[in-house]
Amino acid sequence: MKNLSYTVIPSTDPMGHAIASYHRTGKAGRLQVFSPVLEDDEIPVPWLFRTFEQMPALEQRALNMARGRVLDVGAGAGCHSLTLQQRGLDVTAIDLSPLAVATMRERGVKQALQHDFFNFQGRFDTILMLMNGIGIVGTLNRLPAFFRHIDELLAPQGQVLCDSSDIAYLFEDEAGKPFLPDDSSYYGEMQFQMKCDEVTGAPFNWLYIDPDTLQRAAHENGFSATIVGQGDHFDYLASITRLSQAP
Ligand code: SAH
Question: Ligand 1 centre and the CA of 167: distance in Å?
Answer without folding.
Answer: 20
